[in-house]
């Protein structure tokens, strides 16, 4: 009863489990059983569940059986109907089989035709496919053939375009074919080939322009020079005053002819403009364009630009390297400039016809580098040049060179600054050349006044030199001009020098004031340094005598007066008034004054030397007992020489002649005094004193004859006053007066020095002892001899007193 009492509590649980098993999927049976109480620990739980499960199964079996029994009759009826149909089915099968056989027999031909049709359709499709593929491939093949043809005719840029079309448009359509792969593999090789070929062409182009640079530059410089000359000719034609300013003397006709020639030349050039060549006419630039385009298409434009610029820099360095002998001829300079101009003309052309290959910054940098090198080269090589004509041609080349490159936009101010340095060197070479010309003129001069026989000869001289003399104009022909032939020659050479200096100053883009200043400075150098040095050297030459020195003084006087005409000459050339504040003045006055002073000094020196020569041939018998009664022959010859010499001095300025005469007389007096006091002369007789007195009398007579006008009173005779007082003292033997009045301003023998008197008296004393010249005194008047001894003692006392006082 206990078990029965628990059964009702468990049965609902078993029913739930059975319901879940029936209602759920087979895979969920396990979890249902596990989750239920089938396997609980209660006794007989499992068995009871199994019993419940069996009962459930039996219930289902009874329901199935009931279902089958209910449908069995229908199934039997269906089978019976099926058996009836079976016979009809057999008949139908036979009919169908027969029909199928007959259909198969009838369809064999159809099948054969159908298969033929299928084959034809397949062929047709294949043909269509082939045509389509060929239509795709033929343009590729045609393009590739076109590429090969372009390569063969060297149309590389077009070939690259063709390659680009092949790669981007045609080959992708047929990339599955093997020949396309071969093409694709070949295209990079062809590109490299094109790059190599175009680079080779570029190298040939670079070599070509290196060889043709001088011709390109020469053509460009010629055109620039013609254009400038033409512009100058137009300016001259429009400026009425230009001829007055620039066409002077013999240059006027020549420049006018040149102007006409230039007009004709440019008229011809206007008619034949096609003859004007450019860089593009002289050089084929297509390789560089082609190479640039090719590298740009290939994406290597920067590589090409770097390579081109690097190679051109190398060529620039080669072009800027001059030949060692360039300075020897103008052709060396011309070729050097032509190559440089050609180089930069090419660069300028490349700059304007290409985009980015060269830039203005690049060309400016290259030009600045080149300009520094050019200036250094010209400084060095021009310093070797000693020919002013070559320096002038160099200057003209530099001007054309600068004007040409300036026309292409390159700054050239530093070149014109360099020209100022070369101008100084040019002036130095001119000064050297003119120094030689001056020396030749001085060597060829006869240093005598210019004779003119008639009016024509006179006008020829004054046409070369501005000489005016109203007194000389009154004289009849033949007559002589005071200057020698070197004066007009020197004057003309100074003007030629100014012309030569002006030639360098032209085309320097300087104002007339600056040109005037340059001409005056260079002319001053010529006068103060070159001409002055030549005059100084001329004056010092040993073969230049007194006559020549006198003529040199006269010449320098006239040249000094002509300086104002040189001032006017420069002013006319430059059209700058001398009244301008900044106008320099010529220093000719000081130059010629210095030369005159030197010549005057040389005259004094040579006069003294000539006097010394006469003195040296003097042959006195210092022991003679009495004089000859007439002056010595050497002294008369000396006086005659002085007379003739001073006659030549008539053309000299008065003070010069007077100074020369006074200097000569003083030197003669001093020389005669030294002859008396010569230490080697031990004895002098009274007869020798008397003979010497006769000679001094002749000197005094010469001085009183006024050999040179202008002396007042006996000024010239005072040159011999020392000798005269000394000789009078000994001739009169007036020692008492001398000793009594010594030291007084009114003394009769004021100019006689005690030491001089003592020296001469001792010579006479020694002579009296040996030759008994004073024997008469000893016999007739012994007191006289004692007086001599007393005089000697007193003179010695005076000399000693003077020494102690000193």
Automatic annotation (TrEMBL):
Keyword Nuclease in record: no
Record key words, sorted: Exocytosis, Transport
GO CC, any one term: plasma membrane
Domain Exocyst complex component EXOC6/Sec15 N-terminal: 52-221
Domain of life the protein comes from: Eukaryota
InterPro entries reported in the protein's UniProt record: EXOC6/Sec15, EXOC6/Sec15_C, EXOC6/Sec15_C_dom1, EXOC6_Sec15_N, EXOC6PINT-1/Sec15/Tip20_C_dom2
Function of the protein: Component of the exocyst complex involved in the docking of exocytic vesicles with fusion sites on the plasma membrane.
Family the entry assigns: Belongs to the SEC15 family.
Name the record gives this protein: Exocyst complex component
Organism: Malurus cyaneus samueli
């Amino acid at each position: 009863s206990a078990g029965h009492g628990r059964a009702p509590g468990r049965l609902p649980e078993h029913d739930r489990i059975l319901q879940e098993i029936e209602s759920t999927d087979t895979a969920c049976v396990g979890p249902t059983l596990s989750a239920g109480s089938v396997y609980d620990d209660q006794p007989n739980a499992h068995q009871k569940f199994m019993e419940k499960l069996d009962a459930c199964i039996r219930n289902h079996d009874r329901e199935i059986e009931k279902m089958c029994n209910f449908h069995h009759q229908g199934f039997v009826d269906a089978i019976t109907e099926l058996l009836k149909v079976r016979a009809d089915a057999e008949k139908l099968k036979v009919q169908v089989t027969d029909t199928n056989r007959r259909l198969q027999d009838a369809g064999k031909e159809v099948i054969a035709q159908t298969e033929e049709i299928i084959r034809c359709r397949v062929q047709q499709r294949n043909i269509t496919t082939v045509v389509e593929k060929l239509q795709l491939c033929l343009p590729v093949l045609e393009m590739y053939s076109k590429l090969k043809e372009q390569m063969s005719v060297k149309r590389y840029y077009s070939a690259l375009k063709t390659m680009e079309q092949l790669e981007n448009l045609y080959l992708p359509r047929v990339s599955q074919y093997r020949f396309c792969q071969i093409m694709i593999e070949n295209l990079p090789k062809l590109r490299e080939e094109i790059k190599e070929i175009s680079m080779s062409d570029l190298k040939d182009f670079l070599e070509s322009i290196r060889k043709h640079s001088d011709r390109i530059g020469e053509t460009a410089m010629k055109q620039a020079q013609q254009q400038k000359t033409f512009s100058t000719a137009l300016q001259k034609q429009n400026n009425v005053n230009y001829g007055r300013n620039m066409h002077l003397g013999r240059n006027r006709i020549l420049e006018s002819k040149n102007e006409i020639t230039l007009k004709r030349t440019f008229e011809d050039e206007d008619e034949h403009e096609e003859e004007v060549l450019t860089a593009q006419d002289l050089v084929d630039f297509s390789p560089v364009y082609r190479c640039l385009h090719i590298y740009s298409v290939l994406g290597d434009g920067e590589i090409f630009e770097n390579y081109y610029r690097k190679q051109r820099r190398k060529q620039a360095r080669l072009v800027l390297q001059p030949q060692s002998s360039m300075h020897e001829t103008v052709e060396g300079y011309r070729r050097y400039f032509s190559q440089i101009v050609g180089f930069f003309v090419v660069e300028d052309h490349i700059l304007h016809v290409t985009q980015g290959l060269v830039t203005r910054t690049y060309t400016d940098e290259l030009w600045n580098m080149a300009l520094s090198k050019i200036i250094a080269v010209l400084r060095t090589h021009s310093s070797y040049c000693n020919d002013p004509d070559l320096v002038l041609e160099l200057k003209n080349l530099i001007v054309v060179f600068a004007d040409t490159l300036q026309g292409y936009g390159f700054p050239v101010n530093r070149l014109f600054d360099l020209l100022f340095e070369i101008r100084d060197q040019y002036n130095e070479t001119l000064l050297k050349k003119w120094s030689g010309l001056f020396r030749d003129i001085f060597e060829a001069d006869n240093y005598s006044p210019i004779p003119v026989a008639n009016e024509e000869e006179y006008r020829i001289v004054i046409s070369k030199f501005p000489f005016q003399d109203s007194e000389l104009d009154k004289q009849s022909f033949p007559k002589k001009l005071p200057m020698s032939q070197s004066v007009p020659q020197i004057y003309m050479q100074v003007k030629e020098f100014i012309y030569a200096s002006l030639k360098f100053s032209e085309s320097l883009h300087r104002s007339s004031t600056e040109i005037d200043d340059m001409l005056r400075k260079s002319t001053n150098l010529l006068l103060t340094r070159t001409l002055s040095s030549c005059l100084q050297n001329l004056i010092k030459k040993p073969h230049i005598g007194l006559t020549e020195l006198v003529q040199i003084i006269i010449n320098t006087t006239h040249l000094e007066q002509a300086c104002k005409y040189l001032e006017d000459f420069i002013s006319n050339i430059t059209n700058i008034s001398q009244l301008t504040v900044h106008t320099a003045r010529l220093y000719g006055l000081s130059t010629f004054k210095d030369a005159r002073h030197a010549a005057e000094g040389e005259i004094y020196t040579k006069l003294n030397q000539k006097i010394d020569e006469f003195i040296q041939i003097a042959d006195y018998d210092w022991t003679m007992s009495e004089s000859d009664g007439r002056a010595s022959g050497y002294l008369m010859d000396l006086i005659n020489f002085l007379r003739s010499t001073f006659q030549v001095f008539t053309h000299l300025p008065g003070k010069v002649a007077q100074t020369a005469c006074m200097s000569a007389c003083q030197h003669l007096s001093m020389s005669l005094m030294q002859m008396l006091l010569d230490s080697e002369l031990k004895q002098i007789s009274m007869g020798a004193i008397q003979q010497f007195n006769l000679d001094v009398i002749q000197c005094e007579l010469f001085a009183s004859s006024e050999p040179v006008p202008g002396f007042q009173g006996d000024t010239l005779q005072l040159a011999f006053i020392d000798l005269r007082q000394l000789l009078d003292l000994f001739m009169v033997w007036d020692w008492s007066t001398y000793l009594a009045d010594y030291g007084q301003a009114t003394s009769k023998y004021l100019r006689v020095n005690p030491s001089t008197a003592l020296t001469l008296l001792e010579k006479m004393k020694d002579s009296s002892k040996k030759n008994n010249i004073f024997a008469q005194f000893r016999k007739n008047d012994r007191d006289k001899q004692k007086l001599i001894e007393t005089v000697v003692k007193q003179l010695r006392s005076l000399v000693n007193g003077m020494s102690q006082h000193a």
